[in-house]
Amino acid sequence: MIGMFQHYHTRGAMTITEEKPVVVERTQDTIIIRENGQTITRSCKVVVRHSRDCRFKDEGPSFESCKCRKSLRIYDGTIGRNYHSSAKTRNWETAVKLAQDWLSSFDPDKKALTEEVARFRAKKEKIATVPQAVSAFIVDMRFRQLSPKTVDRARCLLGDVKPTGEVTRSGKLFDWLEKQNPKPTLISEITPAHLTEWRTTWGYGSDMTAAVGWDLVKGFFKFCKGQGWISVSPAEGIRRPAIARGNRTAIFSDKQYEAILAKASGNQRLKTFVELLRWSAMALIDAVEFDTSTLGSDGVLRYTRIKTGKLATVKLPDHVVALLRSIPLESDNTPERPFRRNGLGIDSNTHDWRRDLQDLFKRVGITEVKTEVGTRVPHPHQFRDTCAVWYLRQGMSLHGVAKILGDTVKTVERHYLPFVQELEKAHIEENAAILAAVKTDMPKTGKVVAFAR
């Protein structure tokens, strides 16, 4: 068949045929494309939106010569309806070019030509297409041995691209780029205005997540500048999203934890997993990767954290050790890694356990938790926080809690500051009570002569 090629993918007995899109008809205002057995019609026509006092308003929406705002009347066959979009200009010729560019963005021949020209320029000059830049940045992150969580955050935001230029994960960047007209093809074509608009579409529910995401974007364009693809970073003059001040740590109360255990009691695997999280202070991904060889005969768990690469050491209660020695296995588990399904990657395993735990919270009736910066939904990391705070309240030193968490003392102070202050207050009150019990002859000599017995 001229102008198209076919791929055949077989799943069981089902065969899926994909056609290369071809233009059936192209006029000034319309483009008709045939793809995968469907005919898709799109049209884009410039119309004028006359102001109330325009002396040409009786001429209708096709009048070209007035200075009123121009708009695009668009029909998109994929959604089956008309809609209007501002052309953001009062000049008829400019609006017509915008309409033509919109139609051309769906023309497979022109789209392929644009991308081919960009690739050719990238070979001849010291420039890069957006996919090439993203691919190089992700490869560099992995070479620098950044944590899998950090790399995955970059892939979620920027996307992931094979060295061949094929986008394997669109991420927020490529999803947004596909909606732009004209679409930036080279990394040097992305402007501060683009970035300002793009980040409003992220839809993160947390100000902290948005701020960390923006740090990553700035790091990406700093990398591009270092490669010589751009002379100035478009992110340079854009301010980081504000972060509300206050501690975000939330813990489960004793009553809540008892309720969680009660709901999980009918499922020994789930109950064991919950007890491991609570008493080991493991992050979710570390608990999913739990290896029985890391649990000694003395009940001490020693493992290397995936996020930081640091050693964490914690003595588990006897009842938790007993549970971990007799975990019911499913068909795709192994005795060595009882919580990980062999047929799934670590991301999918972690996602499944997170979903099970969040479902457990809902069944218990825990729908939100309070922090200094407001309420949020309960999450598995609260087990880690609950363990840390419990040990602090039992009098363990910051250094000891840091060893359990596989973190630094500074990190413990930052994340658990309100609870550290609470303990400091208790310490000062105890200190004051001791001093008050001291007998002195302070008025005469200022010296302590005896302690109260």
Essential attributes:
453 residues; hpI Integrase, Chain A; 4 domains; five-stranded antiparallel beta sheet; 16 helices
Q: How would you sum up this structure, described in words?
A:
The chain is α+β, with helices and mostly antiparallel strands and 453 residues long. The chain is built from 16 helices and 15 strands. The chain has helices at 92-104, 108-124, 130-143, 148-158, 171-177, 192-199, 207-226, 254-264, 268-280, 284-288, 318-324, 346-364, 381-393, 398-405, 409-415, 417-436, and strands at residues 6-11, 14-19, 22-26, 30-35, 38-49, 69-76, 81-86, 160-161, 167-169, 300-304, 311-315, 369-371, 374-376, 438-440, 448-451. The strands form 6 sheets. A 5-stranded antiparallel sheet has the order 3-4-5-6-7, covered by helices on one side. Helix 8 packs across helix 12 (346-364). The radius of gyration is 31 Å and the shape is elongated.
Q: Look at the structure and give the mean pLDDT.
A: 85
Largest sheet: 5 strands, antiparallel
Based on CA atoms alone, the radius of gyration comes out at: 31 Å
Cα shape: elongated
How far apart the termini lie comes to 102 Å
CATH superfamily of the largest domain: Intergrase catalytic core
Tell me, what is the CATH class of the largest domain?
Mainly Alpha
State the share of residues found in helices, binned by percent. 40-55%
Using the 3D structure, state the CATH architecture of the largest domain. Orthogonal Bundle
Output the CATH topology of the largest domain.
Answer: hpI Integrase, Chain A
In total, the number of domains comes to 4
Number of helices: 16
Content of β-strand: 15-25%
Q: Indicate the low-confidence ranges by residue numbers.
A: 1-17
| Secondary-structure content class | alpha+beta
| Number of strand segments | 15
